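Customer ticket, subject: "Can you confirm the structure for Epoxyqueuosine reductase QueH?"

Message body: Hello, I'm evaluating your service for our small team and ran a test protein. I'd like someone to confirm that this is what the system normally returns, since I don't have a reference to compare against.
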Amino acid sequence: MILLHVCCAPDEVIALEHFSEREKEEVTAFFFNPNIFPYLEYVKRLNAFYKVSRSYSVSFVEGIYESSFGARVLSRFAAEPEGGRRCYYCIKYRLAVTAKYAKNSGYEAFSTTLLSSPKKNPELIHRAGYEVERASGIKYIPFDFRNGIDHKKIREVLKDVYKQDYCGCVFGLREQVIKKLERDKKDQMQLKECFPQYEHLWRFRGRKLDLTMLKIDGREELKRFLEILKPSSLVVGTELMKDFGLTGKWLKCGKYNCKIERR
Ligand code: SF4
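Agent reply: Thanks for trying us out. I re-ran your input and got the following:
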């Protein structure tokens, strides 16, 4: 019997897809994440956890939300970047409580869905996991949940499941907001430099943009413009689809993928 610490529903889906039907019967999902701030966000992630656990028919249990955890533990490492010591102690604490619960409830081993995340360093998680194993006497299993992921299936399963857009704590959230502001500033300056005639279109950043608002010369220039502006989608009439060679639902613009919507 394995107690599987669940950090969030999307990572839980990836982990549960890893197990066969028979193996799933041996797994109990355990939601213990006092790192999540604010509490309303915690409730959203908890409800998503219930939804996924029920749909996969696995046993599940919620740990106790300790509202003082951020101030008591994580604030000591407030200035650390994501992936540093703050995350190490955050992960280790969540695994330590998981192992304690496992021991008290008769489980043989524990693991975590943090191992599903492409944003987390598995070495850091394993280091915390083995330390907790030594201290608790409960076996840590270093699953490789990212191996052989069926991305199409995962996207389908997650269509109606809440997906968070930051790791969890207030410090990570702050770091993310600062990075976003810096990116916005850089892109806005680039827009001014490269496309001064469209400086006024900055307000379409993250919003739908209609291609008829632009007088752009060819596909490559369009891609360059979209990569800088990053609208949520580009609305295109059938006649212009052909002119710009827009055949699919997405247009790859450097590292940014722009959604294409037919008018
Ligand atoms: S960024 Fe995530 S893993 Fe790191 S301390 Fe915050 S909640 Fe924990």
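A couple of notes from the result: The two ends are 53 Å apart (CA to CA). The chain has a mean pLDDT of 95. Feel free to reply with more questions.
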